[in-house]
Design brief:
single chain; alpha+beta; C8orf32 fold; four-stranded antiparallel β-sheet; two-stranded parallel sheet; 44% helix; 12% strand; globular
């Protein structure tokens, strides 16, 4: 009788320990996943440590004279522009990461330049140097400046033209898919004060787009 009771107790303990081990194992697996997912997200989608202000930079530059009706001619990459771009990303991103660098440059242009309209009579494009000098401009000027800074640190950019507006797209294959629109292109609408990295103003969501590369 004692042997039968002992065997019955062992069977109950064995049945109890089996599911308990599974539950503990699943709990530990869940903890590992909860630890890895944020780590992976931060690694793949880093944010700037801080946003750089204009007065932290030396932006005293000679303003070139350009006479062209093509906005692409105003996107300039030279030693002056590169030094500014390098300074922005080095102050903003503690580790070298292209996504962080692109965010730092986008937020810098979005937050440091005031919107001012062009003359009514004609379209006026500012060079990056002129935008730094005036600290303002319209969507064309902000897009030229942002594209110049991004290209200075190795990014491929293009302009996106919609009715009465223009903004920049940057190509970053390694960025998370939630930012991307067409293929690996990411929207950067620098004159939209409420737009985050990867967003464009909602009023242009369904507009026909003309890409200028």
């Amino acid at each position: 009788m004692l042997d039968e009771n002992h065997e019955e107790i062992e069977e109950k303990e064995s049945w109890y320990k089996g599911p308990l081990k599974i539950i503990i194992g699943l709990f530990l697996l869940l903890l590992i996943i909860m630890w890895l997912v944020p780590f992976y997200g931060i690694k793949q989608n880093p944010e700037p440590n801080r946003l750089v202000e204009l007065d932290e930079l030396n932006t005293q530059m000679e303003i070139p004279l350009i006479s062209s009706s093509d906005i692409r001619d105003y996107v300039l990459v030279n030693s002056e522009i590169k030094q500014v771009a390098d300074r922005i990303v080095s102050l903003s991103c503690s580790q070298t990461h292209r996504v962080c660098n692109a965010k730092a440059l986008f937020y810098f242009v979005r937050d440091n330049f005031d919107y001012v309209n062009d003359p009514l009579a004609f379209e006026y494009y500012k060079t990056p140097q002129e935008s730094f000098s005036s600290q303002n401009g319209d969507c064309d000027d902000a897009s030229i400046l942002l594209s110049s800074l991004l290209r200075s640190v190795g990014f491929q950019t293009r302009f996106v033209q919609v009715p009465r507006h223009i903004f920049v797209q940057v190509k970053i294959p390694e960025a998370v898919s939630s930012y991307k629109t067409e293929a690996d292109w990411i929207n950067l609408d620098a004159t939209c004060s409420n737009c985050e990295f990867g967003e464009m103003h909602y009023s242009y969501t369904n507009s026909n787009k003309n890409f200028i590369e």
